[in-house]
Design a protein that fits this description.
- This protein is α/β, with parallel strands linked by helices.
- Helices cover 34% and strands 13% of the residues.
- It is built from nine helices and eight strands.
- The chain has a six-stranded mixed sheet with strand order 3-2-1-4-8-7, sandwiched between helices. It has a two-stranded antiparallel sheet with strand order 5-6.
- It is globular and about 55 Å long.
């Protein structure tokens, strides 16, 4: 392990929950990734499916770690749910909430080579398991009249029989909304700007990445690393939740917005690694002990961009 939380290679992935293959050139609603490493120009690549992107991501992370790099890999999807979600779904007392939740979704989600996935059916099943009268997951196409997944937003907090009421937002979303940003709730599975569908199909990919590497070779921040520690594999990978909209859109980087955003993240986190502020980014904001515990055990946190 390194005594400095830093990196010298950067992989940033714009995730998507689309149920159709994207165009070969990425297009305006495609799935994009950017990579920056020493001795090479920054690159941005389009992918037609999540399967293709996940395969590329694993291959690139293996190559970079084999070359001795410390890699920061950012994925544009929420990494967790509001505290109490796992308990509402039947978390055994001795289990770790985040590990249990990602394992559950890896078992439930199907996502094939054509990008066809069952995220709406899984959201419907999770709502049924939690036993709430409405929600907490919400949003679906009219073509999928699922009995436990309503098209409209419920009233939060949502009361469940087996856990305390579930909030609409994680601590990190409340934190960034207080600072003028607008991250959406992970419960919203459909409609413009929703992140809930991305989360349902991203957590199984993160779970498989976590299993594909040796235990101390790939860590997911903050669940594996601790919230404000300098634990970074050397060489190895730290995977973190990123939110590209923390940065202003720069159309000069690429004509496609999503591609420009992941390139901007590569450059921003490289700058932070160079000036030392990447370590500052993992310091806790003004949170109490309960909130920090929830963040590390179940909710996760959006990795800040210092100076944005």
């Amino acid at each position: 392990m390194s005594d400095r939380w830093t990196a010298d290679a950067f992989v940033m992935v714009d995730w998507s929950a689309a149920s159709r293959q994207g165009p070969s050139d990425g297009g305006t609603n495609g799935l994009w990734a950017a990579i920056g490493e020493p001795g090479a120009e920054d690159r941005v690549l389009p992918f037609r499916t999540r399967t293709e992107a996940a395969r590329w991501m694993e291959e690139e992370l293996r190559r970079l770690t084999h070359d001795g790099r410390r890699v920061l890999c950012g994925i544009d999807a929420a990494f967790g749910y509001p505290s109490g979600t796992a308990a509402a779904l039947g978390l055994p007392a001795a289990e770790d909430p985040w590990t249990w939740m990602r394992t559950l979704l890896a078992d439930l989600i199907t996502d094939d080579e054509r990008n066809v996935n069952n995220r709406y059916a899984v959201a419907d099943e999770l709502n049924e398991r939690m036993g709430a009268e409405e929600g907490p997951f919400w949003g679906r196409p009219e073509t999928q009249p699922l009995p436990h997944l309503h098209p409209t937003k419920p009233t939060y907090p949502v009361t469940t029989p087996h856990a305390w009421p579930l909030a609409e937002l994680r601590h990190t979303e409340r934190h960034w909304r207080d600072r003028g940003h607008h991250p959406k709730s992970v419960w919203q599975v459909a409609y413009n700007g929703s992140v809930g569908g991305q989360t349902l199909v991203a957590l199984p990919v993160i779970h498989r990445l976590r299993q594909a590497f040796a235990e101390e070779e790939l860590l997911v921040w903050p669940f594996d690393t601790g919230y404000n520690t300098g634990r970074f594999p050397s060489p190895g990978v730290v995977v973190a939740e990123v939110y590209p909209s923390l940065l202003p859109h720069d159309p000069a980087l690429h004509p496609v917005r999503d591609a420009a955003q992941v390139l901007a993240l590569v450059r921003a986190y490289r700058r932070m690694a160079t000036d030392g502020s990447l370590l500052t980014a993992i310091g806790p904001p003004d949170l109490n002990v309960t909130a920090i515990t929830a963040t590390v055990r179940e909710e996760g946190w959006i990795l800040p961009v210092i100076g944005a």
